[in-house]
Each structure stands twice: as structure tokens, then as C-alpha cells.
Amino acid sequence: MRDTPDASSSSNKGNTPPSDQRSPTATSRRVCLEGAGSTVVATAAVQALGSTPADAAASAMTAPARTAISLTVNGVSHRVDVEDRWTLVELLRDQLDLTGTKIGCDRSECGACTVLLNGQPVYACCQLAVWADGADVQTVEGLAHNGQLSPLQQAFIDHNAPQCGFCTPGQLMMATALLNTVPRPDAAQVQQALVGNLCRCSNYNAIVEAVVAAGAQQGGAA
Amino acid sequence: MSEAVQPLMTIGHVTPRVDAVERVTGQAKYTNDIKLPGMLYARVLRSPYPHARILRIDTSEASRLPGVQAVITHETARVVWGAGAVAGGRQYNDAIKKTTLQRRYIFNPSCSL
Fold this sequence. Notes:
The complex is a heterodimer.
Chain A: H1 24-32, H2 38-51, H3 54-62, E1 66-73, E2 76-83, H4 88-95, E3 114-117, E4 120-123, E5 136-138, H5 151-158, H6 168-181, H7 187-193, H8 204-218
Parallel strand pairs in A: 1-5
Antiparallel strand pairs in A: 1-2, 3-4, 3-5
Helix pairs in contact in A: 1-7, 5-8
Chain B: H1 20-25, E1 44-46, H2 60-64, E2 72-73, H3 93-102, E3 109-112
Antiparallel strand pairs in B: 1-3, 2-3
């Protein structure tokens, strides 16, 4: 768990995590872990609650700090008044009703919440919503255009990649990031890119086959 | 039988899942995706100490927080969580209460808010 010096500050507006330009094939999981400092914020908040009188704690609960942010999600602009403690995935699911992005572990382990933040794959459970101010976010709901599935989505169906389907949105977004960088990945590259996206059905072979097939079929962006 | 055998339409053919499109577009609904009117949210508080003995749980401060509907502990729970699907775990209640009053493991929810 990465420790950030300013993690005790409740307002992180403008404190965007460092961007990582490395290829997702090389460091996909590391890229997604860049926002892990937000966990420290939550821990600090709990400790503060425990040491304050009940009345102060109650008022803190009723009036959490909020920040107005603007962001683009799947091409649609939003202005949202977010609580500073909200994560990006909470903003997407609870405020924007985009429940395609899943919360599996809520702690950077499983990858079910993977979205693209300015084109980079991130774990949305460990990105604060305020960090997404001004950002362009892509979720699984934005992969299809006018009802036309992306080649990657179609390949997932053709290769039966989703079993229960809970990890599928995260797998799709991470694979989309891979295909944007490496148009025709081989199986080893796909495995490396998806190493941070767990599938409890253990359907990894079909998922890798689907991504390889999607790349081979189009040889371009997903 | 003089009739010719009809070609098989299902066996031997790949059958796509009926909800395959929903699953790859994020439209498939899972339990956590459902919002109902008046829905309550629960948070489990576990003992920070493994294999410790719980002497008492003071829930008064938690109960005073705005919006809190109930604070459920091992003493007030009508149904013990995680006791299995059989009859909602009811048949284990008394036995589990006896055990959990003595010792708690980190896996056991000892108090819910």
C-alpha cells in the first residue's frame, strides 16, 4: 500500500495521482494501483471519528465536505457535487446509475471496477471521485455504439468469456486498454495485461482467447 | 423407420447465452445493482482482536448517529449471520450465542451497524 504524505487531508481536489504512461502490457496492475493512497484517507477518517465526542462525530456525519466537479463519462458531460470521500466507482454507480462497473473487493485486488481514466486503465474503487475532475472516463456502458457491440464485446460472446459475468466489465475495459496500445496481442501479452483482473469462475482461458481473437480480427482499436 | 433422421438443431451446436449481450454491455443486473425504495444499508464491525473474549459491546454512541435504524449484536440478532442456508440458520442460534459469548474470531461479525 503506497503511502502519500498528504493523505490526511480530507480535500484532495487537484491532488491527482501521478499519471503512468507505461504500457498496460508491462504494468497493468501497477497502473491501477496508483490511486491506492485513498485507502489511507479512509483509515484516517475512522480514527478521527473514534477520538471525537459523539456530537462532533454526528455533525461530521451529517455534513461531509463536498466538491463540485465536472467530468465526461462515455462522451456525456456531467457536473456533480461529490462528497470528498466518494470513490470514482461510487460516483459512477450510485450517482450516475452506471452500475455496469462492479465493486468486487473494493480494495484494489480484483479489478472488477476497472475503467479508463483519460484512456488509462484504473481501479475505480481506489480513485477518489474528486480526482476525476476534468477527466474523460470510459466505462463498459460506453463500449457499444448505437447498439453495435465492439469487436471485443462480440468476441467475448463468441468465446463464452462471461460465465457469471461479474468480472466481465473490468476484463473488457482492461482488454480495451490493451488493444488500444497493442492492436494484435498474443496470448502471453493478454495474460500479462489481465493479471490484475480476477475471475472467480476461473474462465481465464476463454477470456484470453476472446481478447486474442478480437485483436487478430480487427488489428486495430477495440 | 423409413423416415430420414433429422439433423440435430441443438446438440453439437454452439449456443450463445440468452443474456450474453447484457453481460458484455454492463446491463446485466446483479444484487448490488438493485435499488429499492426505503432500502437500508448495513455495515459489519468485526473484533479487531483474534480469539478475544468480548465482555460487552457499547452501542449507545452508534445508535445516536443520525439515520441509524438499528444496531444489531449477537445479543439482539434474531438470526445469526453466516450460519448456513438451512432454515435461515435459526436452529443454530442458541448454540452460537453460547459459543460467541465466550470467544470471538476475527471472521465473526460481532456487531452490525
